[in-house]
Amino acid sequence: YQRSLDFLFVIACEKVLDASPQYRQTRKAILRHSIGEGHYWEFEDGPATQEDVDRIRTEMQNLVRRNLPITREVLTIDKAKRIFQRQGEPEIAELFVRANLDPVEVYRCGDRYGYFCGTPLAPSTGMLKTFDIVPYAHGMVLQFPTVETPEGELPPFQATSSMGTVFFDYAHWLDVLDLNYLNKLHHRVTEGKTQELVLIAEAFHSQRLGNIAEDIASRPVKVVTIAGPSASGKTTFSERLKVQLLVCGRTPVTLPLDNYFKEREESPKDENGEYDYERLDALDLELLEDNLQRILAGEEVTTPVYNFITGKKEPGKVIQLRESDVLIMEGIHGLNDHILAMAPEDARYGIFVSPLTGICIDPHNRTSTSDNRLLRRIIRDYRTRGKSAQTTLEIYPKVIRGAKRYIFPYRNRANALFNSALPYELGVLKPYVEPLLHTVDENSTVFSEALRLLNILRFVPSINNDGIPNNSVIREFIGGSCLDV
Q1: What pLDDT shows up at residue 25?
Q2: Per-residue pLDDT tens for 203-221?
Q3: Would you call 334 exposed, middle or buried from its count of C-beta atoms within 10 A (0-12, 13-18, 19+)?
Q4: Collapsed DSSP state (helix, strand, coil) of residue 279
């Protein structure tokens, strides 16, 4: 439904702009990233106005009322290449060739063709009744319904200025690097310039880490809480933040929230009767609050360590904070109101860590940050936990559901956001994850999901990991980290 709306949006933009002679063949709508519950679009040549938004919305509604058919077609690579070049989309035409994608599965509505990486679209425009367009920053957000919203309704649009800043900083950075689409990443690889890209990307991470550490050091902070969804790179971030805090004259002491899980038999269960470790009440909050208050009071406290094999807490390290010490608490609930309330407001500092952006495949296809985290997790689960790709794919919807319920709603509580995405990382992950995805049983319920990911990876150039620094967040997943991850 979302991708069908994207196609409808592209068609509407072109019809509206074609009606204005001054815009003819000069404006191009580009899908940048997701924000709130929607997709953020910009015009290539300048900002969108309220008039633009109103006209595009009206044209989309007209297309819905006309109930035009959206048909699937299978084309030879040569024909697909000619069509998309003629439509002014040379980026995807080039990727067809680089991926040797023959034949090419496309969708057609009227005389407009669209490519959506194997995602099936709605059979007609008449099915796409629920949507809205909201002006945002320099562009527009195309809103769509979610599985949580009642039929025919949209979730409220929510986008913080801090989140917007992350997106626009990253977009500016990619513009400077001339790396907006995957075909540009191919150019870097073929020209032998990947190492330069890696070094610049890692320097950007280091600079951001340094800025956050300096901000913490400039305040009377005693507790830093770090939260983020699965496979966001929280552990590497925490270890690198510890180093940066030492540079700033503050001594970090870690207290992982996972060590405060309840005894397994006391853990809450989900609707299927399985243990649900994503919920806040999976933590022994009473013990955590007691320990934290005593630590902040300067007492010597023996903290627990959770044994994931036995499902029981055992005696762990002894903590006693000195004047210059900073307690770092990392866990998925690190920004939950209940956790934050355990420390005085002026003594705490919250950080949200996640890959928040991704390099776009072409002007109308983005790489999902959820997919990015999934690929990371597939590799890590296999390498460190012995789990197959199929197992990880089967449990991932539950992980996503937990993140939407217990993690993302609290990211606005953060003092700082750290975007752990790296523009080159898909190329590094590809050689590791492709063989694992090919092991998924064709009779499995997640086989189509494996094929979808493989189809996206076809467009990604492989990048050797030799030049990846040993403190990079990517090392947390592919191995070779010098940090305790």
Answers
A1: 47
A2: 999 999 999 999 999 999 9
A3: buried
A4: coil
The β-bridge relationship of strands 29-34 and 38-43 is antiparallel
Phi-psi region of 185 (alpha: psi -120 to 50; beta: other; left: phi over 0): alpha
CA distances from 374 to 62, 100, 116 (A): 38, 25, 19
Cα separation, 341 vs 468, in Å, equals: 39
The DSSP H or E segment spanning 304 is strand 301-307
Q: Which residues 6+ apart lie within 8 Å of 120 measured at CB?
A: 72
Task: Encode pLDDT of 262-307 as tens digits.
Answer: 998 898 888 888 888 888 999 999 999 999 999 999 999 999 999 9
Can you tell me the mean pLDDT for 79-85?
96
CB 443 within 8 A of CB 378: no
Residue listed under structure tokens 């290449």: 81
Q: What is the Cα–Cα distance from 92 to 426, expressed in whole angstroms? A: 17
Query: Mean pLDDT over all residues of the chain?
Result: 91
What is the C-alpha separation between 183 and 460, in angstroms, rounded? 8
Per-residue burial over 5-16, b if 16 or more Cβ lie within 10 Å, else e, is bbbbbbbbbbbb
Phi, psi dihedral angles at 61 (to 5 degrees): -65, -40
Distances (CA, A) of 207 to 193, 214, 403, 475: 22, 11, 28, 18
C-alpha 242/C-alpha 245 separation (Å) is: 5
For residue 116, what are the contacts with CB-CB under 8 A and spacing of at least 6? Answer: 3, 6, 7, 107, 364, 365
Give me the pLDDT at residue 161, please.
66
Q: Which residue matches tokens 């800043």? A: 165
- pLDDT tens, 102-148? 999 999 999 999 999 888 999 999 999 999 999 988 899 999 998 87
Is pLDDT of 19 > 80? no
Low-confidence winner among 65-74, 327-336, 404-413 (lowest mean pLDDT): 404-413
Query: For the chain, first and last CA: distance in Å?
Result: 39
Q: What are phi and psi of 136, to 5 degrees?
A: -150, 125
How many Cβ atoms from other residues are within 10 Å of residue 484's Cβ? Answer: 10
Which range has the worst mean pLDDT, 50-54, 176-180, 418-422?
Answer: 176-180
Q: Alpha-carbon distance 481 to 485, whole Å?
A: 7
Which secondary structure element, helix H or strand E, spans residue 107, and what is its range?
Answer: strand 104-109
DSSP output for 154-219: -PPP---HHHHHHHHHHHHHHHHHT-SBHHHHHHHHHTT-HHHHHHHHHHHHHHHHHHHHHHHHTT
Q: Which of 180, 120, 106, 140 is nearest to 36 (CA)?
A: 140
For the chain, give the percent of residues with pLDDT over 90: 72
